[in-house]
Amino acid sequence: MLVDDEPDVTYTIKNILEDNGYKVDSFNNPILALNYYNVSFYDLVILDIKMPKMDGFELYTKIREKDPKVKICFLTAITRFNEEFRKIRLALGKTINEDYFIQKPVEMEDLLKKLTSIMNI
User: Fold this and answer.
1) Is 95 left (phi over 0), alpha (psi -120 to 50) or beta?
2) Is the pTM higher than 0.85?
3) Can you tell me the distance from the alpha carbon of 112 to that of 34, in angstroms, rounded to the nearest whole number?
4) Which of 43, 44, 47, 60 makes a 20 to 30 Å CA pair with 112?
């Protein structure tokens, strides 16, 4: 599952992932994504952090309530990554490690490597 409020981002990433053998459901609305989410259906959820209506951390928390085992990673364009990362870990109880963050913009080859790595954690 891929959730990002920017349609061009979801379109591009979805196409790249599907071209590389992934099956992807993409959403530009985090509330719709949450309503669509099915427990144990997805191997990985990719969330943008900054989205209207519900940010990626809120969506993370709600998905975790439904499915504590699914792997979740974040796309972020945050420039002060280290400072923000520390705040996020404190807010979410240190359940997320830095390996689960993908800095935007990302080269598609790097994205594929990172997702493979996350799937193997």
Assistant:
1) alpha
2) yes
3) 24
4) 60
Q: What is the Cα–Cα distance from 3 to 9, expressed in whole angstroms?
A: 9
pLDDT tens-digit series, residues 93-104: 655 666 678 888
- Average pLDDT in the 4-23 region? 96
Q: Which residues touch 91 (CB under 8 Å, ≥6 apart)?
A: 57
CA angle 60, 109, 32 (to 5 degrees): 30
CATH of span 2-109: 3.40.50.2300
Beta bridge partners of 75: 48, 102
- CA nearest to 55, candidates 40, 33, 70: 33
